[in-house]
Amino acid sequence: MPGSCCVKPITRIIKVADFEAGLLGLDQALRNVCTSGVTGEEEIKQDLLRLIRDFGNYVSPSSENEYTKALLREYKSYVARQEDAQSQKR
Q1: Which pTM value belongs to this model?
Q2: What is the model's pLDDT at position 88?
Q3: 3-class SS at 16?
Q4: What's CA 65's distance to the chain center, in Å?
Q5: pLDDT value at 1 more than 50
């Protein structure tokens, strides 16, 4: 891309409670947590929330619980896709 020094994170739209939210860097956050070795659900949710905020997404304190539930759902789906891809390679 001319004039671009860095790759910009992709925006993904996910369902959070009863609304849709566009999140920058979700795929990268999922990948980072997956490869970090973190296994506890609470730690996974907090790491994902922190990373999403690090990518510049605003999450209001009053909606953190809804976001962490949605992020955990996306994480579980991501891990399942990774496991499927690994099993197909064998």
Answers
A1: 0.86
A2: 83
A3: strand
A4: 15
A5: no
- pLDDT tens digits for range 4-61: 566 666 789 999 999 999 999 999 999 999 999 999 999 999 999 999 999 999 999 9
β-pairing verdict for 11-16 and 19-24: antiparallel
CB count within 10 Å of CB 1 equals: 7
Three-state SS at 20: strand
With 0-12 CB in 10 A as exposed, 13-18 as middle and 19+ as buried, what is 33? buried
Q: Find out whether 68 and 49 touch, Cβ atoms under 8 Å.
A: yes
C-alpha 88: how far from its chain's center? Answer: 24
HSE-CB of 1 using CA atoms within 13 angstroms: 6
